[in-house]
Amino acid sequence: MKVLVGVKRVLDAYVKARVKPDGSGVVTDNVKMSMNPFDEIAVEQALRFKEAGQVEEIVAVSIGPAKSEETIRTALAMGADRGILVEADAEIEPLAVAKVFKALVEKEQPELVLLGKQAIDDDCNQTGQMLAALLGWAQGTFISKIELGDGNVTVTREVDGGLERAQIKTPAVVTVDLRLNEPRYASLPNIMKAKKKPVDKTTPAELGVDATPRITTLEVQEPPPRAAGVKVASVAELVDKLRNEARVIG
Ligand code: AMP
């Protein structure tokens, strides 16, 4: 089985996002960028399948500016076999990303596409669902467990208030949630080896995809600053404040 894995380059999860002075977006110049954390989990899952002999090839795909090659190299250092960089604007939208993936799926013929449940920069949570719809494939979203069967995949989905198990037919699109696994770190020898692994380069236009944005960002705002906390002298005072000031207990 061949697996395509989406690896988006995003603002590092531990960096505090700063809004550009003109409110047009978030500052990304000279800021640490990393692989979207859910995508690390997707790569890890693909690697575990490969180690179990269930997957032969893992192809890491990133759509974005030229620097997204670094994100692909991280996936290759973790153990992915090769990469595809689709050079596009940093602000490429989920629908365009889904169309790019559809074009790549038609070329590469994978049986499984593993994506993160959401990218932590746009928080869209749309790409996997759109891709499955465009391909007419089954989809399993927010999955915290996955087992490959013969012509199917059994997934455990994190839903409000519990878990749902479902069996879906392959080929399929699966989006992964936080509790699926703990991604590995790339070792130094593997980082060196990753430099030699192949990364093909293309563009949305070459794949026949119109990536023109359809959404105009009107304004990005910082969240309001949090009010300072207070220290309470006793449990009784805490309960009093929770009841009469915060009004969160009866
Ligand atoms: P989103 O729908 O934007 O929240 O993204 C969901 C998932 O789709 C991400 O976790 C990635 O696996 C994949 N994805 C979205 N945008 C990109 C991109 N530009 N390059 C590669 N994968 C992406």
Could you describe the 3D structure shown?
The structure is a single chain. Helix 2 packs across helix 5. The model has no long low-confidence stretch (mean pLDDT 96). The protein has six helices and eleven strands. With 250 residues, the protein is an alpha/beta fold. Strand 7 and strand 8 form a beta hairpin. It has one domain: HUPs (Rossmann fold). The protein has a nine-stranded mixed beta sheet with strand order 9-8-7-10-6-1-4-5-11, sandwiched between helices. Strands 2-3 form a two-stranded antiparallel sheet. It is globular and about 65 Å long. The structure holds adenosine monophosphate (AMP). The site of adenosine monophosphate (AMP) has 23 residues, from helix 1, strand 4, helix 3, strand 6 and helix 4.
In a nutshell, what does this entry contain?
With 250 residues, this protein is an alpha/beta fold. It has a single domain, classed as Rossmann fold (3-Layer(aba) Sandwich). It has six helices and eleven strands.
Task: Furnish the topology, listing elements before pairings.
Elements lengths: L1 E5 L2 E3 L21 E3 L1 H15 L5 E8 L3 H11 L3 E6 L6 H15 L3 E5 L10 H9 L2 E11 L3 E8 L2 E8 L2 E5 L11 H7 L4 E4 L32 H10 L6
Parallel strand pairs: 1-4, 1-6, 4-5, 5-11, 6-10, 7-10
Antiparallel strand pairs: 2-3, 7-8, 8-9
Helix pairs in contact: 2-5, 3-4
Bound molecules: adenosine monophosphate.
